[in-house]
Design a protein that fits this description.
The complex is a heterodimer of chains A (444) and B (481). Chain A is built from ten helices and 18 strands. By secondary structure, chain A is α+β, with helices and mostly antiparallel strands. In chain A, a hairpin with a 2-residue loop joins strand 14 and strand 15. Classes of the chains: A alpha+beta (444), B alpha+beta (481). The interface between A and B is large, with 94 and 83 residues.
């Protein structure tokens, strides 16, 4: 049985279909969520609340002229109808003056789809009470976010796509003191007190290691292990235009030297956009279906990119269902052969990097990246954790870290659900292994 | 039909509140975006984003609920949900809201030129098209775009204690970005960074920043960078121009002085601060030339306003005076928690996010050195313009920043253009090496619409006005190839 939101969206689509004049075409997107957000600090509640938001984006197309307008709606069509009519009228008037757009493209084959994944979640108040109980005596800071997220697509051809997922994501840090902390996340569709308890237990154990006197390292080159949560930051920076078809074609991608055959990564490096195993919708903003899997890097070579319909038109390429930003939403990095249990032994002596933080390019064409260590990072000697390390800045090229200096990737991978909540709860995810590197340049 | 903002005001007074205090914060924001990329007008985009947040204090707790359903029933449902949150979490609340004064601000604010007619889409496409055509002047220019985003917003704040504030804003944010590529290298140059030109008011700001003619100028600079050597490495003086100073101020003064970071709220995400409460009034943050103000009163600056989003009246305050740390960036709630005086900076980026401590306009007050005097006073150094890379640790101490444009200064004169100029340092030491501060003729009023922070996350508009400044003994370096 459709949710109230789905019924509302279908009614909007019918209204739009009936409102068009001859020769007009519409594309309609719906982005909505009902989210509980509970912010915690010092083991107490800092800001609890609920956000109920519904956005409609309408694109009116006439020939090759088009414009887009988005608006907030109440979810009651009787209440919203006048605003939707006004938006259509504004678009109709805007496109009259526009020139034809040579790069316009949108789906004309109908691929309707429906994905609904509901969650069995206790009330957020109950979950938060349990989290705070488990954190008695600890300096816990973090956020619990939960509730349904809705994405809809409709067009004049009758295509309808609906994506409705209810989930939760708890992100929390346990602080020892100052900037010494352990960060943990627990997200999914079914809340399990036992699973949460196990994660909290592991975090407590790691926190105890931070009580040891910390060590300040001199700048230099160190062997290092990057945990999956650290790899998320590195991969996240590569996603910042790295796999974009447009950025590669205009040589703005940090990976353009791979496209030009001037750079390679280690043969163990394989990346794909794996929508089939992610939680993002399988349709994009112009209505194209997204393939289950788009290979991006294979055995250290660039083999593909994410191509939006607009880029496809501009550069005479084929679109593969990317959105305008051409950023992966379900990045999948292939596992290696190093068992997770043997990573400390493989690291031997060096830095165990639990998290990286605030990465940016220091030389984008060279794919050279700088950033900081953060949270639980340790100095390891002969395969044993010796001391927490004070934060260090690194500045090194991905071509080296995942190229000549890569020792191995772990055979186990982590599914990391994107916890970003800018404007809306993100539906992206990454599946990543950890990596041991023989050398990483630390500068400050 | 959607309710008018006036009808929301009357609806608020009919809501059935059950807490000790409740408020409604409405944001009604429209936006228009125009762009011409590689001489192709991009389809225009417009939006109207309108909703309200209801906040309730009850039994010592506080809760909020935000909704895009602005019917009376929608607002009542939000108020009821906020009340549930306040009650359910009262015993676990970090803050006892019973001890706080109930805001009852009354007043209005308007951006400059708020009612002036804005440009039409045709006007914008004409201007942007001209700059685009001028920028695509060489086969090595591989991508270029001229664009603008204009926004109009109404913020309404009503409280059960009689508060009634209306603030109206108009923002203009133009941009020109050009990318050149040849021989395995790519260089990008922009007009003060992407959306780095951002002010309140009307289109008059275009002339002030030389937007007309910027396409060919920026393209020429991108080509110069393509031919330039890498910035040499060494410990030298740097002359940071205003469009890099804004980033330096933002990351290594603005964020560390946010009181909610100091109180630990941000430790799970944006981070903490090397600044601690005991430093206010006694800590030397920088040289005696360093004067930093919180100034929401400069009309054209991006984050000027009369009241913050918790209803505190906004006034100019010194944060750092003659190098000494005076007060943090903390709104009424944080001030109460910390027991220190702060500023009116509790702000939310939209109706669907709660207010937290944010920068507004954080400015470096001008000194008395002309740009010529500053250059003449440098034996060996680098002038850097326009931020391109920013990274700083979660305590806001160890930083590394990069710029689009560098130019060597040798024996008091500007010489070779260099690419990929980067520098790194530690906030706690860096500002003590501030050696010269430019006079008013070197000041630019800039800002960013993209300051990220908070859980749930928020991206907010922040203003920075700064002169050019000279720093001694800075670790600078270039790129790989």
């Amino acid at each position: 049985m459709p949710s109230t939101m789905e019924t509302y969206f279908n009614d909007v689509a019918v209204l739009l279909d009936r409102s068009l004049a001859p020769g007009e075409f519409h594309i309609c997107r719906f982005d909505a969520e009902v989210s509980d957000f509970v912010r915690m600090n010092r083991g107490k509640v800092r800001q609890p609340g609920t956000v109920s938001q519904r956005y409609l984006s309408l694109r009116l197309i006439r020939g090759r002229r088009h414009a887009e307008r988005s608006l907030t709606v109440s979810g009651d069509l009787a209440h919203d109808r006048a605003d939707i009519d006004a938006a259509l009228a504004a678009l109709r008037s805007a496109i009259v003056d526009l020139p034809e757009d040579p790069h316009l493209d949108y789906a004309t084959d109908v691929h309707s789809s429906r994905t609904v994944r509901t969650a069995n979640l206790p009330h957020s108040e109950q979950i938060v009470a349990g989290v705070l109980d488990a954190a008695q005596g600890l300096d816990l800071v973090g956020i619990y976010a939960a509730g349904p997220v809705y994405r809809g697509f409709a067009n004049s051809l009758g295509q309808r796509n609906w994506h409705e997922v209810s989930s939760f994501n708890l992100q929390w840090s346990l602080y020892h003191r100052a900037d010494k902390a352990v960060k943990t996340s627990y997200g999914g569709f079914e809340w399990s007190a036992a699973d949460f308890g196990a994660k909290m237990h592991e975090a407590r154990e790691r926190l105890a290691l931070l009580a040891n006197p910390s060590r300040s390292l001199e700048p230099g080159r160190y062997r290092a292990y990057l945990a999956p949560s650290a790899m998320e930051e590195l991969a996240g920076l590569l996603c910042w235009g790295g796999f974009s078809g447009r950025a590669l074609a205009t040589r703005q991608s940090c990976l353009f030297r791979m496209r030009d055959g001037a750079a390679l990564l280690d043969p163990a490096i394989t990346f794909a956009e794996n929508i089939a195993d992610g939680i993002a919708p399988a349709f994009q903003d112009e209505g194209f279906a997204r393939p289950d899997n788009v290979p991006l890097l294979a055995e250290g070579r660039l083999v593909g990119s994410l191509v939006s319909p607009r880029t496809a038109k501009e550069f005479a390429m084929a679109t593969n269902g990317a959105n305008a930003a051409e950023m992966p939403e379900a990045l999948d990095m292939a596992a290696g052969t190093l068992p997770l249990a043997e990573t400390l032994a493989a690291l031997d002596t060096g830095i165990y990097v639990g998290n990286l933080w605030y990465l940016n390019f220091s030389d984008r064409p060279a794919c050279r990246v700088t950033g900081m260590t953060r949270f639980a990072s340790f100095w390891v000697e002969h395969g044993k954790i010796v001391a927490p390390v004070n934060v260090m800045r690194f500045d090194d090229s991905v071509y080296r870290l995942l190229g000549d200096h890569l020792v191995g990737l772990t055979s186990e991978r982590e599914l990391i659900v994107n916890s970003d909540t800018y404007r809306a709860r993100n539906v992206g995810s990454m599946r990543l292994p950890g990596a041991v590197v023989s050398e990483m340049v630390f500068t400050l | 039909m959607s309710s008018s903002n006036e009808s929301i005001r009357s609806c608020f007074h009919q809501l059935r509140g059950a807490g000790d205090f409740w408020s409604l914060r409405l944001v009604d924001e429209t936006a228009e975006t125009y762009a011409v990329r590689k001489n192709v007008p991009q389809p225009p985009a417009s939006s109207r984003d309108r909703g309200a947040m209801l906040t309730v204090w009850a039994n010592g707790g506080s809760g909020y609920a935000a909704t895009s359903d602005l019917s009376r029933a929608g607002l009542q449902a939000a108020l009821d949900r906020a009340t549930e949150w306040a009650r359910a979490t009262a015993t676990a609340s970090l803050i006892d809201f019973r001890a706080l004064p109930k805001p009852a601000p009354r007043g209005e604010y308007s951006s400059p030129d708020i009612d002036a007619p804005g440009w039409s889409g045709r006007d914008w496409y004409e201007l942007l098209g001209a700059e685009s055509r001028a920028a695509g002047c060489d086969a090595r220019i591989v991508d270029w775009e001229a664009s603008v985003e204009t926004r109009n917003a109404v913020h309404l704040y009503l409280t059960s204690a009689g508060g009634n504030v209306t603030q109206r804003y108009r923002f203009v944010m133009p941009s020109v970005v050009v990318t050149a590529h040849a021989d395995g290298d790519t260089q990008t140059r922009s007009l003060n960074g992407y959306r780095g030109l951002a002010q309140q008011g009307g289109e008059a700001m275009l002339r002030a920043f030389g937007f007309d003619g910027s396409g060919v100028r920026i393209a020429d600079e991108a080509l110069q960078l393509l031919a330039a050597p890498n910035c040499p490495a060494g410990t030298v003086d740097v002359l940071l121009m205003p469009d890099q100073m804004v980033l330096q101020i933002h990351e290594s003064i603005g964020h560390p002085l946010e009181l909610d970071r100091i109180l630990g709220d941000e430790r799970n995400f944006a981070g903490t601060s090397f600044v601690t409460l005991d430093m206010f009034g006694s800590y030397r943050y920088g040289s005696e030339l360093l004067n930093i103000t919180f100034d929401p009163t400069r009309p054209e600056e991006l984050a000027s306003y009369a009241f913050d989003d918790d209803g505190l009246r906004a006034e100019k305050q010194y944060l750092i005076r003659a190098g000494m740390l005076e007060r943090p960036l903390g709104g009424a709630l944080s001030q109460s928690r910390a027991g220190v005086a702060g500023v009116a900076n509790s702000r939310a980026d939209n109706w669907n996010r709660p207010p937290i401590d944010r920068m507004s306009n954080i400015n470096l007050e001008p000194g008395d050195s002309s740009q010529e005097q500053m250059i003449a006073g440098i034996e060996r150094g680098v002038l850097m313009r326009t931020n391109s890379s920013w990274s700083i640790d979660d305590s806001r101490n160890k930083f590394q920043f990069g710029c689009e444009w560098g130019q060597l200064i040798e024996k008091g004169e500007l010489t070779t253009v260099v690419k990929n100029p980067n520098y790194r340092g530690i906030s706690a030491n860096f500002w003590r090496n501030l050696r010269q501060v430019g006079d008013a003729s070197t000041v630019q009023v800039l800002g960013t619409p993209y300051c990220g922070k908070g859980e749930p996350s928020q991206v907010i508009r922040v203003g920075h006005a700064s002169p050019a400044c000279v720093f001694s003994s800075v670790d600078v370096f270039g790129g790989d190839a």
